[in-house]
TrEMBL record:
Name used for this protein in its record: phosphoribosylglycinamide formyltransferase 1
Keywords: Purine biosynthesis, Transferase
Matches recorded under SUPFAM superfamilies: Formyltransferase (SSF53328)
Source taxonomy: unclassified sequences, metagenomes, ecological metagenomes
Pathway connected to this protein: Purine metabolism; IMP biosynthesis via de novo pathway; N(2)-formyl-N(1)-(5-phospho-D-ribosyl)glycinamide from N(1)-(5-phospho-D-ribosyl)glycinamide (10-formyl THF route): step 1/1
Gene Ontology molecular function: any one: phosphoribosylglycinamide formyltransferase activity
EC number: 2.1.2.2
GO cellular component, one term: cytosol
Keyword Cell cycle found: no
Boundaries of every Formyl transferase N-terminal domain copy: 1-92
GO biological-process terms attached to the record: 'de novo' IMP biosynthetic process
Amino acid sequence: MRILTPVFVNRFAGHIMNIHPSLLPKYPGLHTHQRAIDAGDHAAGATVHFVTSDLDGGPAIIQAEVPINSGDTADILANRTLVQEHQIYPLAAQWFCKGRLTLNNGAPHLDGNALPETGFPFSTANTEQ
């Protein structure tokens, strides 16, 4: 992991995406899976977001939720989440490359429509977006 300088981030604002293994704004930073388990959350997930100078604080583009099952360890939850990460990051990149995803006045838009604050709610049912 590399934290980019504010100068770099500002130079490419709206053109840098990151994936984070939590349902942001919950659990920015490290050890996200263990933190979700320790908090007694029933779900965890991953978020693709635009990068800002705030660590894991940029506007959400898309989120995928996964259940936290009884007996899950951080490693088990991380593996379950990774499956979703491999679906949502390429999807967000595809939207961006096709010009469908933009950042307007600090808010992500898909096909000209503002996305919810938590981003597009991903499920396998809408993979053809």
